[in-house]
Specification:
The structure is a homodimer.
Chain A (H helix, E strand, L loop, with lengths): L12 H11 L8 E2 L2 H7 L2 E6 L9 H10 L3 H5 L2 E5 L2 H13 L3 E6 L4 H9 L3 E5 L3 H15 L2 E2 L6 H17 L5 E5 L4 H13 L4 E7 L4 H8 L21 H10 L2 E5 L1 H15 L8 H8 L9 E6 L19
Parallel strand pairs in A: 2-10, 3-4, 3-6, 4-5, 7-8, 7-10, 8-9
Antiparallel strand pairs in A: 1-2
Chain lengths: 328, 328
């Protein structure tokens, strides 16, 4: 009888340092990009940690690698199972391949084509499911029962959270004296790791989560003081449709200064401007903190700001500023 | 009476070293990107010198800065004039602004919107012309007569060629033991500088120019041994529609091992694959050497290959894999 219950509660800063050592050689130390033009637009010095240039195209490989490489050998050999709307899936497939163990990946049948193809490219065994959390969880449970493998949740897992925190740990080593760190928030795994890493380096750093107004469970949870669920997932930011868990909400309440939201138009504008200015492909989910800066949702005047750019996996046939062909 | 005749014949390696020193602090030392997946596809180790991440979005700022900053003060104050189908225009505007002198830019009225906007962003004074070389030259001549300024040709200028060569000079410092260097060829300024820089570092390096089959003047000039002009400019690679000059043809005959051509479909496929694999935005012109590698036009098996990625200025409303809306 396997369980999908994660193995631990919350990681601490030492777990992030351990993860950073474990990941060495398995993930890229990604570049930090900046632009004088962008700094002029927002009146701050902004440093973008480019996890879109990470292996498998997103930060998710950090959490997946940390989880997969922390397993003992007999456990790892029974294989890895996960469900994911996208980037976590490719990341787990790559991590399992690198450890030479099987990966069974449950992916929503409406996930972007590029994300499904990258699971295949990394040798993951795909199970497509209906695009609901319940359907994905049921499919994963069946796989767990038949293989005896290990489930790695996309965000509700202390090993995954510690791995995601290594992006900020690296950024703060690459750029001195950061005052503010911004990351998008979905299930809260990245933002939890980001906040623990930032406060491990300096308790003076303020951390904000950035969220689409159309999937604003974290903002409402912060406002209400209780864990709220998304009532809409209609955002173009397809990586940000999950809701917080008890675990991540608990971490965020302790370490995050606030959650700000942006509109769909602001996301699309920010994504396009980033492409034009930086010549770097970012997916809609990463454009959310960029949009928050451009819209002045966070007070960053004159400060040094770090932003986690989360991923670059985009369906190039369905860019958000393209008019749908069917309307013509 | 001003002339558009360039000031010198051909630069040598020492001119490139001088240019590299002159450009220090004015241009980015751009990153070099590589991909295990891409290397596997072409059976070589390929290092992409990412001038799409350069200031103003292309390598052109190197030649423009070198030319503008080599002028004496009274000459510079009378202003800079150029005509260009695109990236050179923005580059000259930026170089003139950095030297605090006026720039008058003649741009074809069919140039991509993003390129025209970047001239404006850098404070260049725009004169739109019909999209023929004769119309652009006539407009530039009128500006020269009225201002007494200095004309900086997009490629037929020794100062510009030396500046463009600094990209390869940097690349060969960043990556050891390169065997082969590839660059696209249009008017031949970049390829001339590339070849002089490569052979200045090591005479053992082989250099190839890569050209769209639909604008193949350089390939035909090499085959015939005489300077040929483009008979078609119908290529999607809008930065590669110019023909060689006597000067650049002379340099290329001395330093370049061959010219290879690729089809439009190969360019579009290579551009899209590069976006998906590297998460870096490249314009169609830069996809030409990428396409040459993917199509096996250059023998690179097991060798270390440098590729100059020239620019990232793309009209995001008119990507080549999008079906035109008007056909629906």
């Amino acid at each position: 009888m396997m369980s999908t219950t994660p193995v631990a509660t919350a990681p601490d800063f030492a777990d992030i340092v351990t993860a950073a050592n474990r990941l060495s050689g398995h993930v890229h130390r990604t570049a930090v990009h900046a632009s004088r033009s962008f700094n002029g637009m927002v009146g701050a010095e902004v440093f973008f940690k480019c996890e879109n240039l990470q292996r498998a195209g997103s930060f998710k490989v950090r959490g997946a690698m940390n989880a997969v490489f922390s397993l003992d050998e007999p456990t790892a050999r029974r294989g890895i199972i996960t469900h994911s709307s996208g980037n976590h899936a490719a990341a787990v497939a790559l991590a399992a391949r690198e450890r030479c163990v099987p990966a069974h990946i449950v992916v929503s049948n409406n996930a972007p084509r590029a994300k499904i193809e990258s699971v295949r490219r990394y040798g993951g065994q795909l199970t497509l499911s209906e695009p609901t959390l319940a359907a994905r969880e049921e499919a994963a449970r069946r796989l767990l029962d038949s293989t005896g493998g290990t489930f790695i949740h996309p965000f509700d897992d202390a090993r995954v959270i510690a791995g995601q925190g290594t992006a900020t740990f690296e950024l703060l080593d690459q750029v001195a004296d950061i005052d503010v760190v911004l990351a998008p928030v979905s299930g809260g795994g990245l933002l939890s790791g980001t906040a623990i890493a930032a406060h491990g380096v300096s308790s003076a750093i303020t951390v904000y989560g950035c969220e689409p107004a159309l999937a604003d469970d974290a903002a409402r949870s912060f406002a209400m003081g209780t864990l709220e669920k998304n009532v809409s997932q209609a955002t173009i930011a397809d990586g940000l449709r999950a809701s917080l868990s008890e675990r991540t909400f608990g971490i965020l309440r302790q370490h995050v200064n606030g959650i700000v939201t942006v509109s769909e138009d602001e996301i699309i504008h920010a994504m396009r401007l980033f492409w034009e200015l930086f010549k770097l492909i970012i997916e809609p989910s990463c454009a959310v903190p960029v949009a928050a800066l451009l819209a002045g949702r966070v007070d960053v005047a004159g400060r040094r700001v770090g932003v986690i750019i989360t991923g670059g996996n985009v369906d190039l046939d369905a860019l958000p500023w393209q008019k749908p062909l069917s309307t013509h």
